[in-house]
Specification:
Layout (H helix, E strand, L loop, with lengths): L1 H47 L11 E7 L2 H7 L6 E7 L2 E12 L4 E9 L4 E8 L50 H24 L12
Antiparallel strand pairs: 1-2, 2-3, 3-4, 4-5
């Protein structure tokens, strides 16, 4: 009798506990999927800010691929960094490439979008620690300096021109931020060289880009 009573007590405690664990597991799984979906949606929205709607009309997919080890150093990136291929109805229309430069006060992180002809669509600074009122003018919200890159390519801008005007380059400068500006120009140029390596391989080779030197 005592044994049956003990068994009932164990069942009384265990069954609700098991059910609670199952419910918590289901809620965690569902929440994890929602959070993951929201993160992906936010990332897609952020990336598409660099690609005007003239390049896509709704059915957009962004494929992320690993930056080859041979290009990590020139782009200032770490292992595991991705670049992105924007597709419209399955057809590639743009590349979005990250890069990091060493500014006056720390790392400057940028994203550069390039069309399939190798022309820069847009450049945005995503993170920096530069001096307010000086170096922060690399942000589009502070000045239009960053807009100078739009339309530039390796074919219409020579290697020598990838510098500041006082250095004989093609890009405007402003007082008190030459280190910052040079860092941005250098890394934008690096993204164009990377995109050129990809585009010269052709899209069929994008997934085998690890072999690009």
């Amino acid at each position: 009798m005592t044994s049956k009573a003990s068994l009932r007590r164990i069942m009384f405690i265990s069954v609700p506990a098991i059910l609670l664990m199952l419910v918590l597991g289901f809620v965690h799984s569902s929440t994890k999927k929602i959070i993951s979906s929201n993160i992906l949606s936010s990332k897609k929205e952020k990336l598409l800010k660099l690609v005007p709607k003239s390049y896509h009309d709704g059915d957009v997919f962004i494929e992320s691929l690993s930056v080859p080890e041979t290009h990590l150093k020139s782009l200032g990136l770490n292992n595991g960094s991705d670049y992105h291929v924007v597709k419209n109805y399955g057809i590639p229309v743009a590349l979005i490439i990250p890069a990091v430069g060493e500014g006056y006060s720390g790392d400057i992180k940028i994203l550069v979008s390039v069309n399939m002809e190798g022309n820069i669509i847009d450049v945005r600074v995503t993170s920096h620690q530069e001096t307010p009122g000086l170096g922060d003018k690399i942000e589009i919200t502070e000045s239009h300096w960053i807009s100078q890159f739009s339309g530039r390519s390796l074919s219409n801008t020579t290697d020598v021109e990838w510098g500041l005007a006082p250095d004989g380059g093609a890009f405007d400068s402003f007082t008190g931020a030459t280190i910052t500006l040079r860092a941005v120009i250098r890394q934008v140029f690096a993204t164009l060289n990377f995109s050129d390596a990809i585009l010269n391989k052709g899209y069929d080779s994008l997934k085998k880009v690890e072999g690009i030197n």
